[in-house]
Amino acid sequence: MKIQTTRNDILNALLFANRAINPKTNSFILSGVMLEADQGFSIYSTDLETSVKSAVKAKVLEKGKTVVPAKILINILKSLKEAKIELVFNSETNSLNIEYQNTNFTLNTLSVTEYPAFPDIREENKINMEISKFKEMVSKVQRAASIDESRAILTGVLLEVEKESIRMVATDSYRLALAGEKIINSTVETKVVVPARVLDSIQKSEHSEETVEMNIEENQVSFNIKKDKEVKDIIVSRLLSGKFPEYSQLMPTDLKHNIMIDKEKILEVVKRISSISKDNIPIKLSIDKGKITVKMNIREVGSSSEDFEVSYGEEKIDIAFNPDYLVDGLNMMDSKKIILSIEDPLKPILVKPEKNENMLYLLMPVRVT
Questions:
Q1: Would you say residue 114 lies in a domain?
Q2: Are residues 257 and 335 in the same domain?
Q3: Domain tally, the chain
Q4: Nearby residues of 229 by Cβ (< 8 Å), 6 or more positions away
Q5: What pLDDT is stored for residue 230 in this prediction?
Q6: What residues pair up with 125 in beta bridges, in sequence order?
Q7: For residues 193 and 245, what is the distance between their CA atoms, to the nearest angstrom?
């Protein structure tokens, strides 16, 4: 194998592929990435649950493939400045030479035969979206997914596809986030649960001008990220098994109080008042005629409070929340005005934008004395 590329092109592809590597893996081979030069140059990574193929702009001088430790290769490339770089695999010494200006590195390689094969993909149910819209949806719901592996299904995001729309839903049983978007020319109708960390890796990537093609199979989903009709990167992930909560049944139906609030105002007040705590002490909202008072009281630390005007003239409501969860929900909204819909201080509330019906955040209050 012999290829010529640039430091930035290979590093960007390597950082994207590295998202599939589990830093806690006990398998040395899975801590590596496979470099393959054929018709083009690609980097492969996997943790056996998720696999990535990332394409690199390169001139292929000799075909071949090898496996190298990902972390070491990343550290080397980060130490270099942008310039041309050449990678040459020496099959006699099982080493990879990295030639950069006056600098040369030689890395011992790992066994290609021991490296897992990239999953086969059967094109079955394809949905195309602009990646910018896809990433925006993921950013709005992913924080509501659980990190508790004992309830694996809640560590995923529900993808609910209909003929002209797609919804993403995530919940950790304390809050629920939903975001929807229209799609064009889709004949697919399905529901699957994708690990949140897989979607997070796409959301945090540098991709911004491409399209993403989702291909949903029985046990796996693949995301083909395309630019100029060419596949640039592929992520393949196993789907999570189990029954995702019927979120429509969780929605409150008798929301007696609907309060219009300036999003930035309540967001800055909640952040300011909760700044005295680092332990998610509940933050209390007292909603009364003409104003909302936000307060926090910590016996060992002290207290804080602030009020601001609001258009509300009904009965007084005292309600409390985990401040971080409340901030996440407020940040999810994409309009200047939001609506807090409340049925009862001990029942879930709805947070939604003033006009967008394809987005909402359901939050459980905290019982306080």
A1: no
A2: yes
A3: 3
A4: none
A5: 78
A6: 216
A7: 11
Residues 356 and 333 in one domain: yes
Q: What share of the chain is helix, strand, coil (3-state, %, to 5)?
A: 20, 45, 35
Residue 214 lies in a domain: yes
- Nearest alpha-carbon partner for 44 in 96, 116, 122: 116
Q: Which of 80, 108, 136 is the last residue of a domain?
A: 108
3-state DSSP assignment of residue 138: helix
Provide the percentage of residues in the chain whose pLDDT is more than 70: 99
Tokens of 229: 């009709």
Residue 59: pLDDT over 90:
yes
Range of the domain at 306: 251-363
Residue 211: strand pairing partners? 130, 226
32 part of a folded domain: yes
How many C-beta atoms surround the C-beta of residue 256 within 10 A? 12
pLDDT in tens, 195-232: 999 999 999 888 878 899 999 998 999 999 987 777 78
Position 256 pLDDT exceeds 90? no
Q: What is the CATH number of the domain that holds 29?
A: 3.10.150.10
Instruction: Please give the average per-residue pLDDT across 248-261, as a whole number.
Output: 87
Two structure tokens written together for 227: 């630019």
For residue 323, which of 270, 285, 361, 362 has the smallest C-alpha distance? Answer: 270
- At residue 140, the pLDDT reads 95
Two tokens, residue 55: 């394409």
The reply to whether 233 and 267 lie within a common domain is no
- The sheet carrying 2-6 orders its strands as 59-62, 2-6, 84-90, 95-100, 103-108
